[in-house]
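Backbone-to-sequence.
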């Protein structure tokens, strides 16, 4: 998985490209979010537009990142969910945990 970090105003956006799987992608996501939080950056959007698949370990890592950011007094939100990922979050009841937005502009504005 490839992660591109950008900043819009004071919000940090991680554009995720590729599958989030055990041993592939979940470590990269943990490192990217950990680096932001370690640097005091706690307004984070995960852009999932180019993520075709998330396995259980990947889902667990997204939850872990959410917890890490929340414990630091920050907020982690999800944007541009594919239908497959939105369905996965609905089935696991995680749609009630995460704030999700259909566009980057909505996500940035929500902070």
């Amino acid at each position: 998985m490839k992660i591109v970090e950008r900043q819009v105003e004071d919000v940090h956006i991680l554009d995720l490209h590729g599958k989030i799987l055990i041993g592939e992608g979940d470590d990269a996501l943990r490192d990217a979010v950990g680096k932001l939080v370690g640097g005091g950056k706690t307004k984070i959007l995960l852009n999932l537009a180019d993520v075709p698949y998330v396995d259980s370990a990947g889902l667990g890592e997204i939850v872990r990142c959410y917890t890490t950011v929340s414990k630091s007094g920050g907020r982690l939100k999800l944007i541009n969910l594919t239908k497959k990922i939105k369905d996965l979050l609905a089935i696991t009841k995680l749609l009630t945990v995460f704030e999700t937005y259909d566009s980057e502009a909505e996500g940035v504005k929500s902070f």
